[in-house]
């Protein structure tokens, strides 16, 4: 159930980042917007303005006004590259869930040591581990593109970026599924040994 929620959330983030519109609000008449923080690499992205400080009397403190950057202000191709790792992670979760579902069907049919069970668990483990590592490897690409675009703009700016991302729960889940696959493989070997004795 948690994996389904994680996959659905990742797909929502991808859709919100690409469309740059709040997906759960009615269209039209709303001042709501999707902030740049929808991108997994961005923790803070703000325009800083102190142009009003020239109008202050001597001795008055000038407070910088910060305005959040909207996702639509970032070029679409950068947003697409930035959310690609999340899309890949969501796809890996869905594939892993389908593989585990297939393995569980054979277990429910009374064939826990069938080759399909081991293959399903192995496939789910590989997809989760590889998907997590690929997401971790691609995350800095979106980070670099967003930072490069941001550095090329004029004016005062505030930026906060998430330098690295590793989904430890998905990585551990993949490793646990791989271990279960090994256990079922050994169980199948033991069952073959016992069948030969009887």
Give a quick set of tags describing it:
single chain; 198 residues; mainly alpha; 3-stranded antiparallel sheet; 4 helices; 60% helix; 9% strand; elongated
List how many beta strands DSSP finds. 3
Shape: elongated
- Low-pLDDT residue spans: none
Rg (CA only): 24 Å
Return the average pLDDT rounded to an integer. 83
- Tell me the β content: 5-15%
Helix content: 55-70%
> What count of helical segments does DSSP give?
4
End-to-end C-alpha gap: 42 Å
Largest sheet: 3 strands, antiparallel
Strand order across the largest sheet: 2-1-3
What are the secondary-structure elements, in order, as H or E?
HEEHHEH
Structural class assignment: mainly alpha
Quick structural gist:
This protein is mainly alpha-helical and 198 residues long.
Give a written overview of the molecule.
The structure is a single chain. The chain is built from four helices and three strands. The protein has helices at residues 2-19, 76-108, 115-151, 168-197; strands at 42-49, 65-68, 156-161. Strands 2-1-3 form a three-stranded antiparallel sheet, with helices on one face. α1 (2-19) runs antiparallel to α2.
List the helices and strands and how they pair.
Elements: H1 2-19, E1 42-49, E2 65-68, H2 76-108, H3 115-151, E3 156-161, H4 168-197
Helix pairs in contact: 1-2, 2-3, 3-4
């Amino acid at each position: 159930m948690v994996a389904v929620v994680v996959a659905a959330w990742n797909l929502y983030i991808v859709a919100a980042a690409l469309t740059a519109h709040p997906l759960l609000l009615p269209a039209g008449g709303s001042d709501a917007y999707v902030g740049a923080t929808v991108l997994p690499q961005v923790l803070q992205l703000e325009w800083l303005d102190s142009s009003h400080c020239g109008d202050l009397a001597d001795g008055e403190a000038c407070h910088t006004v910060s305005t959040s950057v909207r996702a639509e202000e970032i070029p679409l191709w950068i947003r697409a590259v930035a959310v690609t790792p999340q899309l890949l992670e969501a796809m890996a979760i869905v594939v892993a869930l389908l593989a585990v579902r297939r393995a569980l069907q054979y277990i429910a049919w009374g064939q826990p040591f069938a080759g399909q069970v081991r293959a399903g668990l192995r496939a789910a483990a590989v997809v989760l581990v590889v998907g997590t590592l690929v997401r971790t490897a691609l995350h800095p690409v979106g980070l670099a593109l967003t930072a490069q675009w941001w550095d090329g703009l004029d004016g005062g700016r505030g930026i906060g970026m998430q330098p690295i991302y590793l989904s430890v729960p998905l990585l551990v889940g993949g490793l646990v599924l791989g271990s279960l696959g090994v256990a079922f493989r050994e169980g199948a070997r033991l069952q073959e040994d016992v069948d030969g004795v009887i």
